[in-house]
Structure formats: C-alpha cells, structure tokens
Amino acid sequence: METANVIISSAPSIVNYDIVAQSILFYTSNSTTNCTINLRGSSTKTFDSVVANGECLTFVLILTNGSTAYTANSLTVDNVAITPKWQGGLAPIGNPNGIDSYTYSIIKSSNTSYTILGCLTNYA
C-alpha cells in the first residue's frame, strides 16, 4: 500500500512534492496553469538528505484537466532544475478533458546527482 495525498483543488504553479508524506499526489480540480514539480524530502529536509546514494524512488503526480490542457512542464530537485528522460524520447504535453498521471523514477547516483525517468499516461 502506498500513501496518496488527494487534494480537492487545482495544482499550483509550483508543486512542492514532499517524498516523506506521500508516493502519489492527486489534484482533483481542473488545472489552471502549467506547473513545476519541486521534489524535496519535506518542508524542513532536502531530498538529498533523505535519499541515499544508489537508491531509487518512484513517485506519481496526477493532474486533472478540463477543456484546456496543462502539464507538469518542469522538474526540480531541492530547487535545482533537472531535465527528465522521457519514455519515447519526447517531453509530453497535457491532454484536455481527462486525468494525466505522471510517473517518475529518480535514481540518486551520488550527492546531488540524479537520473530521472518519466512517463505520462492519460485517462479519459
């Protein structure tokens, strides 16, 4: 069983994703803007201090879209930008009138050095 945090609102422009609080973060209201995911341990701990070298973490961000498609268009770890490697080779775009589920696996190879693999699945 994994912990899901279900939030009855749209995602803010910056989503502070606290890995100690949940594995899945689900925004149920229609998105109103693209968002940046800031991956961190918690509001008081860095991601780097919580995850050891050689560990891999998988997390999911679920966004609901109305007639206008918005997307999780960038990702940071402890406020440092990292470009994910996307399944299929291209960064995805959001999908209108459905639910987009972004799944990321982040592998920590050394202090502040990460490889992030991402994919988007649309549910309509």
How is this structure best described in words?
The chain has 124 residues and is mainly β. The chain has a single domain, classed as Jelly Rolls (Sandwich). The protein is 3% helix and 53% strand. The protein contains 1 helix and 10 strands. The chain has one helix at residues 47-50; strands at 4-7, 14-18, 24-30, 35-40, 56-65, 72-77, 80-81, 85-86, 98-110, 113-123. Strands 1-3-5-9-10-8 form a 6-stranded mixed beta sheet, with no helix packed on it. Strands 2-4-6-7 form a 4-stranded mixed beta sheet, with no helix packed on it.
The main β sheet shows up as: 6 strands, mixed
The radius of gyration computed from the alpha-carbon positions, rounded to a whole number of angstroms, is 14 Å
Number of extended strands: 10
Domain count: the total is 1
Briefly note the CATH topology name: Jelly Rolls
What is the helical fraction, as a range of percent? under 10%
Percent of residues in beta strands: over 45%
Rough outline: globular
Overall pLDDT confidence: 96
Task: Indicate the low-confidence ranges by residue numbers.
Answer: none
Strand order of the largest sheet: 1-3-5-9-10-8
CATH architecture: Sandwich
Secondary-structure content class: mainly beta
Q: What is the first-to-last residue Cα distance? A: 25 Å
What is the highest CATH level, the class? Mainly Beta
Number of helices: 1
SSE sequence, one letter per element? EEEEHEEEEEE
Brief summary of the model shown:
The chain has 124 residues and is mostly beta strands. It is built from one helix and ten strands. The mean pLDDT is 96.
